[in-house]
Design brief:
3 domains; 434 Repressor (Amino-terminal Domain); 6-stranded parallel beta sheet; Rossmann fold; elongated; 4-stranded parallel beta sheet; 12 helices; alpha/beta
Length: 352
């Protein structure tokens, strides 16, 4: 149904920018600024224009705007396939916050499939850019030697990384979660309960994220003057592989295990049950990610919760700032995760 203007006359037609300006008592340019550069207006003027827009149900002609600005108002985010036997942390919270905050700023997030090898992802970028399908990118799953930041930077394409670049020379915009703080908090919690032989089950060395979480365990153990020699095991992010990897450490008198993911923690659960021991009662277990299954395990899994909603909003904020001012100094945001204590680590050693 067509919208009608309050001017009467018997004609149904959509309200125009000029009518909004008339209703608000400002110039058409001021209305345009309210829509495209609201920071240029005084608060009272901006509110008056927005009130007129709402009263008239005015909607800018999006197609004309895109033609004028040569902008798609789309932000690309590549989604990688998950290899068989490998679990990935649930990212719905991050993607929802990213999409919602982008939408509030007038953008949309375009999810696109990328090859399993991250190094091949720029090929997808090139295709999207040729078709003018996106204006900017958010890149995830960063790693040492990642070619994507340089590829985008050389072409002056705005981007932000969800994850550190892991190379000292890289200075782009990024948002990440402080994994070392998370595993360190887990060790602090277990040490306060009286644990002295606290193992770490992580991923193979070389993963930036995995090495960061291992560093947090190692540094916290040093703070508490606890031994680490022979107390670290590695596994790919797979339940059965984790069960095999943690087995030898459980036979060395370990009373607690900190893991790099909830998937690895579940493998630890299975290894304990295989040996006739009970997670939480005989050996404390702490995961990482606070996945949907963590609270439903028996016993409920203590884990490190990542602030994924805040990460999504921060990525949008940094990316929009980069689009607005390509020459601005890079900004980095390191977010602090939260330790969620549940039954798998609730009791002290003496109570076992």
């Amino acid at each position: 149904m067509a919208r009608t203007t309050p001017s009467g006359g018997g004609r149904d037609r959509p309200p125009t920018l000029a009518l909004v300006a008339q209703r608000a008592g400002v110039s058409p340019q001021t209305v345009s600024n309210a829509l495209n550069s609201p920071e240029l207006l005084a608060t009272e003027t901006l509110e008056r224009v927005r009130r007129a827009i709402t009263e008239l149900d005015y909607r800018p002609h999006q197609a004309a705007r895109l033609l004028r600005t040569r902008s798609s108002l789309l932000i690309g985010y590549g989604v990688q396939p998950t290899p068989d036997g490998v679990a990935r942390p649930v990212m719905e919270h991050f993607l929802h916050a990213l999409s919602d905050s982008a939408h509030r700023a007038g953008y949309r997030v375009l999810l696109f499939a990328v090859p399993a090898a991250v190094k091949d992802e720029p090929d997808c970028y090139a295709e999207l850019l040729r078709e003018r399908s996106v204006d900017a990118f958010v890149i995830g799953n960063t790693y040492r030697g990642d070619p994507r930041p340089d590829w985008l930077r050389k072409r002056d394409i705005p981007f932000v990384s969800f994850g550190r670049p892991w190379a000292a020379r890289e200075q782009g915009d990024w948002v990440d979660v402080d994994g070392a703080h998370g595993t360190g908090a887990a060790v602090d919690h277990l040490a306060a309960l009286g644990h002295r032989r606290i193992a770490f089950l992580g991923w193979p060395r070389g993963s930036g994220t995995g090495d960061d979480r291992a560093r947090g365990w190692r540094e916290a153990m040093a703070r508490h003057a606890l031994p680490v020699r022979g107390l670290r095991a590695a596994s790919r992010d797979d339940v059965e592989a984790a069960r095999e990897a943690i087995g030898p450490l459980l036979d060395r008198g370990v009373t607690a295990v900190v893991t790099a993911s909830d998937t690895l923690a579940l493998g630890c659960y299975r290894a304990l049950l295989d040996s006739g021991r009970t997670p939480g009662r005989d050996v404390a277990v702490v995961g990482f990610d606070d996945s949907a299954a963590a609270a439903m395990l028996a016993p409920a899994l203590s884990t490190v919760r990542q602030p994924l909603e805040e990460a999504g909003r921060s990525c949008t904020r940094l990316l929009l700032a980069r689009i607005k001012d390509p020459a601005a100094e890079p900004e980095q945001v390191l977010l602090t995760p939260e330790l969620v204590v549940r039954d798998s680590s609730g009791g002290g050693v003496s109570g076992r």
